[in-house]
Specification:
Length: 185
């Protein structure tokens, strides 16, 4: 739109049609101002999303979540601390909601937090914990996180169900090591 106004201004100036030139110039300045406002809005939105992401990163590395991560699931056991798991999954639900609200900002799912979110969701889902919590609360919990997980896995290996299943199988094979590392932190 801005370019069209500028192109329209040139012939008006050449033909010495000052009224048309004034109109085109006014329109051009108005469109440039609108472009600047939209651009600034876009930058502010990205800046706020990144700031919120940094806050989430601080929370993830905070004492409360480190303690929750260390005690949510003992390596080699079938026992889960549901209270701790809910806290961790709620945290990742916030991350997934941030991703949904901020639009496609790949740095969120490519980050360490994105990696952890995908792994926690996979392990909890495979052990029936997501369904257990949904049944317990009689609600469709963690839908944003589930969508985030689907996007994460597509970005990791593509749309092929076979490749996705292979990725999940590989991750599940390393689950014991994952929980051992979580207990160490």
């Amino acid at each position: 739109m801005t370019l069209a106004s500028f192109v329209g201004l040139i012939p008006a100036l050449i033909c010495r049609s000052w009224d048309a030139a004034t109109t085109c110039a006014t329109l051009l300045v108005g469109l440039i101002a609108a472009d600047v406002v939209v651009w600034q809005g876009y930058l502010i939105k990205r800046q706020l999303a990144f700031s919120t992401y940094l806050d989430l990163d601080k929370e993830w590395n905070g004492t409360e979540l480190i303690e929750a991560r260390q005690t949510v699931h003992a390596p080699g056991s079938n026992e889960w601390n549901h209270s701790r798991l809910e806290g961790i999954l709620e945290f990742f639900e916030k991350l997934a909601s941030l991703f949904n609200l901020s639009g496609d900002m790949p740095f969120i799912y490519r980050s360490t937090l994105g990696w952890y979110a995908a792994h926690y969701f996979l392990f909890a889902r495979e052990h029936g914990q997501i369904q257990y919590l949904r049944d317990l609360w009689q609600d469709c919990l963690y839908e944003d996180l589930e969508g985030f997980y689907r996007l994460y896995i597509v970005n990791e290996v593509g749309h092929s169900r076979r490749a996705q299943r292979a990725w999940e199988t590989k991750r599940l094979a390393a689950e014991q090591k994952f929980w051992e590392q979580e207990c160490k932190d």
